[in-house]
Design goal:
Blueprint: H1 3-35, E1 38-39, E2 48-49, H2 53-60, H3 63-94, H4 101-109, H5 116-138, H6 151-179, H7 183-191, H8 196-207, H9 209-224, H10 228-233, H11 245-255, H12 259-286
Antiparallel strand pairs: 1-2
Length: 291
């Protein structure tokens, strides 16, 4: 097979995907980079070049963006940790010899198929009406908290729903990792007298580090990019105390009609998320071992 036919095959099979990827991802990304250096309302044809003024304004003057970034960092830390712990715990439970483990796997995975907007409205009803009704009947303080009316409880409301939504997906990945752990290694550790904690820490976790890498990457990207759940559950309130960076960017570009400033925020956010996920993947990849 000559080089011409090889190039023709690559164009036929890869070309359409590359064209669509360019139209959907590369070209919009390049345009957003250009608009981040301009002043534009997103509607008119008048685009004014302002250079680095947008970035200077964001870093030095925009307190709302700094507050939303700090909220996103705190939310990401809590959501990533709890989602992975719950997902891993469910995976450990559902890899045991339980009669109902297959139905339970389905039940725990189901929340992941619900869209974020719908999920937010459902849980908004639960927090506002459901919890208050249970609190009135049982007088339990947990259910009488102002879940969406206070900055602290609003933060944890978002974390609870995020964990409930994503833990089932990570559970499936952890189950796949645990299923591939050699049984003879587990049996050898038990024969040597390893406790359950020692078995978990010294055998299971090191051998499923590829699954940990994937799950941490997914959880970090989900948490940083949280938008639809934030919009529908708290709307960034009360008084902007639970506004994520993604919601702040959306409001800047499409509500305040400052598209240039919004794309500049998105560009800075992209750099920050890319660096964090790159560091996470690099670190966890080094921890991976072969059975």
């Amino acid at each position: 097979m000559n080089k011409t036919s090889q190039w023709l095959q690559q164009i036929v099979f890869v070309g359409p995907a590359l064209v669509f990827f360019s139209l959907i991802v590369l070209i919009p990304f390049a345009m957003s980079m250009y608009y981040s250096f301009t002043e534009w309302n997103g509607v008119t044809s008048q685009v004014r070049w302002v250079g680095l003024d947008n970035f200077r304004r964001i870093l030095l003057e925009d307190k709302e963006f700094r507050d939303s970034f700090w909220f996103t960092i705190r939310f990401t830390l809590a959501a990533v940790l709890l989602t992975n712990l719950v997902g891993f715990g469910l995976a450990l439970l559902l890899t045991q010899k339980l009669k109902a483990r297959n139905p339970l796997r389905t039940i725990f995975f189901l929340p992941n198929v619900i869209g974020g907007l719908l999920l937010g409205f459902i849980w908004q009803f639960i927090f506002v009406r459901g919890f208050s009704t249970i609190g009135e009947l049982t007088q339990i303080g947990f259910f009488q908290l102002p879940w969406l009316g206070d900055s602290l409880t609003g933060f944890w409301a978002l974390v609870i729903v995020s964990v409930w939504h994503g833990a089932g997906y990570l559970m499936v990945i952890y189950i796949a990792g645990l299923s591939n752990v050699p049984k003879d290694l587990v049996e050898a550790a038990r024969i040597d007298g390893a406790t359950r904690w020692q078995l978990l820490r010294a055998v299971l976790v090191p051998l499923i580090m590829p699954s940990v890498t994937v799950c941490l990457f997914l959880a970090i990207s989900w948490a940083f990019k949280m938008f639809d759940l934030n919009l529908s559950l708290t709307g960034g309130g009360p008084y902007g105390s639970t506004r994520s960076v993604a919601l702040n960017i959306y409001e800047e570009a499409f509500r305040n009609n400052r598209y240039g400033l919004g794309t500049a925020k998105a560009f800075l956010f992209f750099i920050a998320v890319s660096l964090i996920t790159l560091l996470q993947v690099t670190y966890t990849k080094k921890k991976e071992v072969e059975a």
